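A favour, since you know our structure tokens better than I do. Could you add the entry underneath, on a fresh line?
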Amino acid sequence: MIVSWKSYSDHRTGIHSSSEQLRMTYVKERFTLDQSTKDLLQSMTPNFGYDGFGEFIFYRTYSRNKTDGSKENWNDVVIRVTEGVGSIRKDWYLKNRIEWDEGFWQHYMLHFAVSMFNMEWLPPGRGLWAMGTDFIYERGSMALYNCFSGSTQFFDGLELKTFEEAVNTTVSVKCVDGKYRPAKVLQFGERDLTRITFKKQGISNFKLTYDCTRNHTWILEDGRRTDYIRVGDKVRIYSNKNSVDKKSQNYKDGFTHGLVFGDGTQQTNNPERYTIRLCSTRDYDYLNLLLGCSDYQCICSPPSYNGDVVLTFVNYAKNYKALPTSTDLTYLRAFLAGWIQADGSNRLENSVRLHTTNREGYEWVVNYAPLLGYTVTGYNENNKPTNYGERNYPLITITLCKDSTTYTVQSIKELNIKEPVYCVSEPETNSFMLAGGLVTGNCCWTNLTDDLDEDIAWMMDCLMCGAGVGFGPERNNQLQAYQPKNSYIYSIPDSREGWCESVKLLISSYLTPNLAKPDFVYDNIREAGLLIRGFGGLSSGPEPLKVLHNQIDTFFSNYIKDPIQYDSVRLKTDIANAVGCCVVAGNVRRSAEICCAPIGDQTFLDLKNYDKNPERASIGWMSNNSAVLSQPDDFLLMNDIARRVVSNGEPGIINHCNLKHGRIGKNDDVREDLAIGFNPCTSGDTLVLTPQGVRIFDKIDIGSTIWSEYGWTKVVNKWSSGIKKVYKYRTTAGYFLGTANHRIVSEGLKVEVQYADTIDILSGDYRGKTEIDRDAIMDGLVIGDGTTQHDQVLLCIGSKDNDYFKSEVSSYILGAYGKTDTHRVITSIKDLPRTYLRKIPKEYLYGNYTKVVNFLRGLYSANGCITANRVQLKAASFDVISDVQTMLSSIGIRSYYTTNKTHENTFANGTYEIKESYDLNISVDRWKFAEAIGFIQDYKTAALKESLKTEPTGKSKETYPIISVEYMGEMETFDITVNNFTHTYWTAGCNVSNCGEIPLEHREVCNIAESLPTRCSNYKIWLKACEYATMYMSTVSLLPTHQASTNSVVARNRRIGLGIVDFTGWVKENGLSRCINWMRQGYKRVRATNKWVNDEAGVPVAIRVTTMKPGGTVPKLAGKTSGLTYPTFKYTLRRVRVAENSPVTPILINANVPYEKDVVSAGTLVFEFPIIQGPSKPIEEASLWEQAFNLVTLQREWSDNAVSNTLTFKPKWYLRKHYFAMPEAGELNRHDEIIVTGLVHALETEYVDDKLKIDIEYHNDNPTSIKIYDYNPYHEEDEIENVLSSITPLIKSVSMLPHTKDGVYAQMPESGITYDEYLTRRNAIKTINWSELKDSDVDTEADKYCSGGVCVRPNL
């Protein structure tokens, strides 16, 4: 049932054109520093760090173009940021009629600016870039109201109204406590609409759907309210239990109306007359009600032909065959009772079924039932013919229950339309009732239980719909299971509901004594390989369901036989995992599960111990398992957890004990934090690149090697982040699949993707030409130019394609098929849908370098061409274009696609519609295509060679606009840590990141700044710097983002996070005891400042105020080490990658900054800056325990948010060198060369002695990865368990990485050098003249849209 009935188009993009948005000025007032202050600031000279490297970072990253074409210097940026902060605060004060003291703020902001200029504190990088720009003043921002579509219906008393017709009137609404209260209906402008669908819990196809803003406040089943409802959330609809007087006249009249409406007849010649025939003695039970009706006239005389009583009613004004217009509760309840008497049937003692062909009547029942003593729990339509022939209308059956009913959010869909929105304002309870009986909030304001059959069926239904499911297998040692008695035939319908119902019936037969077991018939299920229309993909046939049924039988047999060894936790988890495997095998949609249980549950902990439970290996992979630490004693089990994590990477840890607190060990008077997690996440379907080819996230683990902007890197940690909403952010050059808060790289900066305008692209490992794979080439040809006739796959070979017959695949062409230009060929392709439905076979999408190159050679020979100096692939299937783009990127070739819209073409035999098609273009990397892939045909090869004579015009694009956002559903998500400097990696052609220093609520944003105590001459100046930074962050929280759901959380929490830069250097200079004392004073100053500025602004104090963050490039401006880390080396060669065509490049070259070509990325130069890091010792000299102690100290003394950290331990085996092919002669020493050569000759994978370890991976008997390790007698691996056990109770999060020695990879970001080399290199570099810079690597107009530390995504 759709309450808000409207037809909407389903756009792919999910983004409105900016021309459709109204731009409003959200910061009208301006704060301008006095000219004397500006003159003072302009006269100052900045002190950048790292011998000029900090200045390079500033001009390259944070300096904007000025109106005269020149670049901002540091003085300009400080003035812009200061005036931006002052403007936001001034505007807030004047808007809210708070006194603004201009003289005070001029004086205060002078000192604010000087402190920032001296880099005693710094805003985040986004704040340096955007604070004080016009965009943050004028950007369009969503309103803070939570509203419904105008066509949505609600109850005014007992009258159903739409918001549109009731706007600006006072109505009487039913509130959450059951009482009626007055309320005002208001309109709140135009907003984007979202469709929320609620489904009755369990197996039912009845749904309630409402169109509203995404952030509308809903009241959940447990009474909590949420302004960001999620799939799986539960609400409850209560039936009205108030009694009515059945002897009253209104009841008699209403009952008669309902009975006649259902079974009565209106006379044709006398339409005011209605008759009802009583067909049995049972009907006489309510005869007195009918006789008492106000409109009763007589009993028909003579009676009907068989003696049944016929009653006549007369009313000239009321239509008994129409739905009631009365707003009297007694009349309406009687009407429904009479209708049920006429057209109903008892199903169970507490429920009835109502049958009707009147669709308007059906909608009336759905809307009114909860007010009239029922809730709707089921719905069915029957179109089958009757004994009298075909039905004119379907027979609708409504199931009504007298009890309250739980509904679950089944789906949330963005409609991509904007309409006026409305809501009521009821000030006392902030609630009202919608049509359908759902009580919701207004503008002011699955565990697996013993009902295993219902829970599992619901879970399977969700998984088959593509939603991820988290579950908790509740332990019940008294759970009873029984062997079924007898059996009955059950033919499974070919539908999602049919599969779920079969599982429910099977489980039920084991949970109830003496129940018969279904004997399944699978004949109705479509055979394997047929199209699934509702969900896409191809049918798997019944086999996965048969396997699941057999597994469930086995699980229950095990449980009945020995419920102690095979207990309830094992039973429930096995069934849940098996269901997930069935859904994955069923090809409907990929599903994801996460299983959570107490850390002390031994059965749960052993679920992935496949030595102990080998039979679980086939299903255990389906869920990621996390142990919940909810009590202090749970931490006594950390040693066991650490051992299991070392063994197989699981279980994860959910530390609920500390997350809600502020500083650990302190009694800070702060609110409990409702934050739910640290980590932005990616889906299990997200693509990464390994040396063996593209893989999905699910298929990589700790120790895997994946591609990054610095070449191959190692995954050193991976964990499940739970079930979350996943979106696909697409550019024309690649796409990102993950959560909205995951950080991608945009114009070189890390930004949450939901706020990003562009995504930087990243191409994979280009290896040049490879060996021939004829199978792959032919399969590519067939996907491009293949066809089917009489169940045979054929290849179309045109007159220009005769080169095929003398090519590498000539032996695969078997001869012509008939008299056409089609030929029989040898190919593995067995099924070819229409061209616009084709997909790239997974064998090639996930193939190795050789398979990808050869398949693309075939595909491009079939459908490729040269157009305007571009290599172009044409396809009618977007799936083909998207997958080929991913394959090209994986082998190091960049591409972008364009769309050819649907249009009409006129031919000799008529005019036809040409479907939308796509062109995939290779421009800059044409030479790579020519060298590695090429064409089979001579004429295409010649055209390609000719195109290579012309250089590409314009700059090589490194970043592409986000052109669409597609909601993919809720699914299990993951996060990883990679062992490279930037913590970034390749996914589907994009460059993305991972991070997490502040635990956040859903849709909450980071609002951070940095203090730099080692830039302060004494601790009092540092305290003032903490004050100014706090004022900056607190002011940023006054400016709303464009996301209303974010604004509501920010308004409640006002969360900020001030970090400390160069903590280890600070301790080195001053001693730990003194720094601890200063941190305590600093925390007090931050709290006091936040209370002052927030109290004055009239907003709540921040829920949390301090943190430790990685820092990125901002600390480098001052020449300082990020966060709590140690320097990599003291005398350091710092490498930076710059595009050859960057305007920065000639300036660096003119200054004699050494450089060389990037060994990974073409068109990129690597510049080398000598710097001194310190004053603390390098990381190699810091023990794991020392680092852990720093973490505990900061979590206790400073950070009430989490401490972002990566503890580095010395591994048992140091990686000396990593080769991705057989090393050239002379690259290895003689001893190692002999061993490696012997291993490769014998195809051995490992060699270990007491000093040397070699690991080799092969593909097609060729080495693809050779790692050479040296034994480290001073390793710390044996200490990891002790460290984790010691510090986990005292912190909120921890991660670890092995230390990587210098020189393992070419052109590492940092390398150690000697003092003499440092001096030589420094003296050779001239002073850099930055006044020559007239452009930058970043677009000053629209690439970053930020308000201080909070970035937003612009409307496109």
About this structure: Residues 216 and 285 are 48 Å apart (CA to CA). The chain is about 30% helix and 25% strand. The radius of gyration is 35 Å. Residues 1072-1097 form the longest helix (26 residues).
